Amino acid sequence: MWRPVHAITSFAAGLVFGIGLIVSGMANPAKVLGFLDLAGAWDPSLALVMAGAVSVGALAFALAGKRTRTLLGAPMLLPSARAVDRRVVIGSLVFGLGWGLAGICPGPALVLAGLGSTKGFVFLAAMIAGNGVFELLEKNRGSRARLEPERA
Question: What is the greatest pairwise CA distance in the chain?
Fold first, then answer.
């Protein structure tokens, strides 16, 4: 059941996340590219930001895994897949390639678009197009699976 408190807490969480991205420098593509440039003028400062984010995320997932409902009473919906398969590897490579080329990932892209940045809008358009291609491939994959006879 949707309640206004869900919208308010979602907005607050997104706002804190966005402010954190701006303050940490993660919404600055030049800073991110400096962090990713291990062979050049490497800027290790974002490693601390990432270590902090991974620590907080690991703690949150550990606590959430023990619950059946969120603090607001909604059902706890956590990912159940644990296998690292070809799709995960390919998706990770595509994500890393895009991040390395643009210095932007989805969260900072939303922040940049919200700030009126052309780079943010271009990245979001490319991300939406990529999602569309994925959906078409998945739909095609599902159609082929239904047409092929099962193999023993």
Answer: 56
